[in-house]
Amino acid sequence: MPIYTCTCVQGSLPSDVKDGLAAEITRIHADINGVPPDYVNVVFTETPRENVYVGGRPGTPLLINGWARRGHPQDSTTRLALAIAEAASRISGIPQEHVMVVILDSPARSAVEAGRVLPDPGHEAEWLAAGRRCGDHRLFPPTHPFLLINGWARRGHPQDSTTRLALAIAEAASRISGIPQEHVMVVILDSPARSAVEAGRVLPDPGHEAEWLAAGRS
């Protein structure tokens, strides 16, 4: 269910460090948020050293972006971020002042995994039981590549539309890629339209696209 993307400078984390960090992030999230370890996803992205800056100068930070379903208690999410930051520094050897952890969230119904809409926090048991009845193989070690798709949309779209969007993209991704649906995850993140700029203009709230497009033509 959760996704963690660890971005670092190319070559700064050896394979054994990645193994240890992925295992610890998985353990911490499973312990705090009550998700089976098999459902915790950790991805490492390495960036060439000349492309990474901190405070306007070349640097070697470790940036960890996580995603969790909206509705977990804030205290739990704070503990999660603190525990992951401590573990990341301890395992990687990167000082804590160069480690940043951010936990993003969006509604559970904006995400699809194994072809099914995710449950709200607190309803994992029923979701997992239904998955066993459906033969969800994520309950066992994966034997296929895993495809993670992150989208972003302006906050305010009807939740039913966002759920249909995630389901349709998950189905298409599996069909086109040949990766089974149980190994495809789609998450639609959201934030206010006024937190985004395109073509030099602040984006419109959902429902006001026509006026925004017309103003762009004039």
From TrEMBL:
<dbReference type="Pfam" id="PF14832">
    <property type="entry name" value="Tautomerase_3"/>
</dbReference>
<protein>
    <recommendedName>
        <fullName>Tautomerase cis-CaaD-like domain-containing protein</fullName>
    </recommendedName>
</protein>
<dbReference type="InterPro" id="IPR014347">
    <property type="entry name" value="Tautomerase/MIF_sf"/>
</dbReference>
<feature type="domain" description="Tautomerase cis-CaaD-like">
    <location>
        <begin position="1"/>
        <end position="128"/>
    </location>
</feature>
<dbReference type="InterPro" id="IPR028116">
    <property type="entry name" value="Cis-CaaD-like"/>
</dbReference>
